[in-house]
Amino acid sequence: MSLLKTTVQQPLLLLQQHSMPMHSSSFISTNTMNQKKKKSMSNRRALILCCSGSNTSSYSPSPSISTTTTTTTTTSAPPIIKRRKRYRRQYPGESIGITEEMRFVAMRLRNVKGKKYTKDSLGEDDNLASDNDGDDGGVTWQPSMEGFLNYLVDSKLVFNTVERIVDESSHVAYAYFRKTGLERSEALEKDLEWLGQQGFVIPEPSGPGISYAKYLGELSEKSAPLFMCHFYNIYFSHIAGGQVIARQVSEKLLEGRELEFYRWEGDVAELIKDVREKLNMLGEHWCRDEKNRCLKEATKAFRFLGQIVRLIIL
Predict the structure, then answer these.
(1) Are 112 and 286 in contact (CB under 8 A)?
(2) Which residues fall within 8 angstroms of residue 43, CB to CB, at 6 or more apart?
(3) pLDDT at residue 56, rounded to an integer
(4) How far is CA 274 from the centre of its chain?
(5) Measured distance CA(306)–CA(229) in Å, rounded
(6) Which of 39, 97, 237, 256 has its CA 20 to 30 A from that of 62?
């Protein structure tokens, strides 16, 4: 029996011995693996800190995540489309000044030959087509002494009105155009006095001169830009076209005598240039609407002046 018991117990003991070590070794193996993992993570952490530099506090993975998120949000926004600026087309002569713009208007008011107004070139103001400057389609006009006297008297009334407004008005714009050297009132007074001494009867101002003088007086109180349009065109027209009239009248009616009306003290080209520059500088302070009205007013200036010139041949 004892031998049988011993024979049975030995395998059991051996089984217990083999099973217990296996369990403990598995436990030991698991612990060992965990320790290795921790050590590996510790070494990896140390390696990262070592490569990042001596200042370990500068390393922070969270800002990169935030930056990535912000960049993604920014790039996803729609692009801003800027509106293109549209530049207004300039009027002829606008880059130089208002006087140059008026010159283009004067050119447009004449036909291709440059002798008279035409309905096609006047646009809205068709009434001007019947009032040319004295040229009748290229026909040589014959001045009369009576008509020439009417022209001088009406011209004197117009120049007197313009110069009185400029000298007496408190408007600051008019003050720049006093004593320009282009004034014609005194010269006309001398011419009419001399003609009276020659036995000619000096008439009273007629309708064209009275109407224009009245219009200028009313306009000067309403709008300085519009009045200055007439101011410039009156003097400029007399200098440009007046020379032709003076030469023909002098040859046909005055036996070659030159009137004071067509004489200036100093260089007339420099005098009108000075007025032109001052008016251009003044025009820089006008809005585009005021300039446009000034250009339209130029047609009225030529109409009034044309009516007075036509007195010479009536």
Answers:
(1) no
(2) none
(3) 44
(4) 23
(5) 16
(6) 39
